[in-house]
Amino acid sequence: MRTLQPVAERQAEQMMISAAHPLAVEAGLDILRQGGHAVDAAIAVQMVLGLIESPETGIGGGGFLLLHQAGSAQPVVYDGRETAPAAANPDRFQFLGTSLPLALAIPSGSSVGVPGLVSMLALAHQEHGRLPWATLLAPAIALAESGLPMPPRLQRQIEADWSLRLFADTRQYYRRQAGVEPPVLRNPALARTLQQLADQGPQAFYRGPIAQQFVQRTNNARWGADDMRLEDLASYTALKRDAVCAPYREWTLCGAPPPSSGGISVLQIMGMLEHFDLSALAPGSPASLHLITEASRLAFADRNAYIGDPDFVRIPVDGLLDAQYLRQRAMLIKPDQALTQVHPGEPGKRVERRDIELAPDADERGTSHFSIVDAQGNLLALTSSNEAPFGSRMLSQGFVLNNQLTDFSFDPQLGDLAHPNAVAGGKRPRSSMAPIIVLDADGEPRLVIGSRGGSRIIGYVVKALVGVLDWNMDVQQAIALPNHLDRGLGLEMEAGTALEQQVSALQALGHEVSLVSMTSGLHGIERVDGQWRGGADPRLDGVALGE
């Protein structure tokens, strides 16, 4: 990990941004200095990250934007999740009755969804933007044209991913630039695409030459479905949804609703942990690790059983967040022994149901997150993703094509029932993105945070929330805490950290423990003594800066 930023550098009176690269933070701050809204700054930050963190995020992907307007009662969510082509069917990732290996599904035409990021940003800008759309794209266009020294983390990602050698697009863009001494990151094709969006507006992404080339590249994949059509892009619509909110001790936590599982799962975990005195337990102690792990296992069981696209499946959102239901689920947790089996509950009927077998998610770790507070006190958390780092290994017009449809269940059945996350035409796959805003008892902002990391995002965010709210840690210190979580795959703990000393104690409690690399990307901002204080994950290259 990098050395943590000093407090004086990440504390500010009026505005602040925490993101995964200093150039993205500076682009956003410049927009705020011009009087821009948090949404304006978010567009500038996102477009710069789409160049610098292109394996993780970009206009070929999607995301969720959580916004709390100063003085409003509750945050709202802009849903820019990708959709499956209209012709997609539940057997998309099946071959002769067997699920495809993930490694084959990712770099295929079957994996690419209709990107939602541009539409989502356009909708939020239409409702809140103060500066012209073209102004917000200018920093990314300039950087893509002029280039910058290739970030060390990107160099490491390129070197570590052997699959980039196999595909022409990633060989020609990533490996060719990484092989120059010194490595330079430049993307004139992306600059031209963004300039088209600046000149013609965001709708140019979904109609006309950009859309035509996107569809052509998708359908020319080496293998997989070739059913993406121009009509799929032209009909895409970003959605505005109510945030899901629930109490936690004296605070209110709000997050993204389905089709993201992140908000509900984080709120469920915290709702169960509320029944234990975490403040009396030391961070990283076997007792605290055990409680957080068991609550996570129970929440992931519910997640896998119920969460999908709410426009296609009925989701008992209120029941899953009901305080009595979460109390009953918390009572299943034994303080001195891990549960041998974990089952989903059935809100309003029973605390456990044993009639379905759940399969855990595949292990993906892409995505980027940033948090913003503007001079008017508006808070914004945006998590965006291509799904896997480097997405489908295909590029079009300078941007990576997502592989988000691999977030659908490969098996269309869940026992005797249709899987809530089965593929369907026009459907949004389940996500784990978990932008979170915390309000105090007076409804005033306390914290805004989120992370990268695939389905591990949920655990990363919970760790930071517990650190700030229960252990009274500075947001930067909470972000830097060693990572740990259980998604139904056993207790994963961050290798090379102090948690390695707790393996034996946790195994004695019955946990199956593995030590793994866990590169979170937590970026948050908290309100402390009338000031904003930021934190950036030292596992990445980001910073928190403000004025």
Question: How would you describe the overall organization of this protein?
Answer:
With 547 residues, this protein is α+β, with helices and mostly antiparallel strands. The protein is built from 17 helices and 25 strands. The strands form seven sheets. It has a seven-stranded antiparallel beta sheet. It has a seven-stranded antiparallel beta sheet with strand order 9-4-3-13-12-2-25, with helices on one face. A three-stranded mixed beta sheet has the order 20-21-22. A hairpin with a 7-residue loop joins strand 3 (62-68) and strand 4 (76-80). Helix 2 (38-52) runs parallel beside helix 5, helix 5 (133-146) packs antiparallel against helix 8 and helix 11 packs across helix 15. The longest helix has 21 residues, at 286-306. The radius of gyration is 22 Å and the shape is globular. The two termini are 26 Å apart.
* Sheet with the most strands, sense and barrel status: 7 strands, antiparallel
Assembly annotation: single chain
Task: Tell me the β content.
Answer: 15-25%
β-strand number: 25
> What radius of gyration results from the CA coordinates?
22 Å
N- to C-terminal distance: 26 Å
Q: Return residue spans where pLDDT drops below 50 for at least 5 consecutive residues.
A: none
Quickly describe the structure:
By secondary structure, the chain is of the alpha+beta class. The chain is 32% helix and 18% strand.
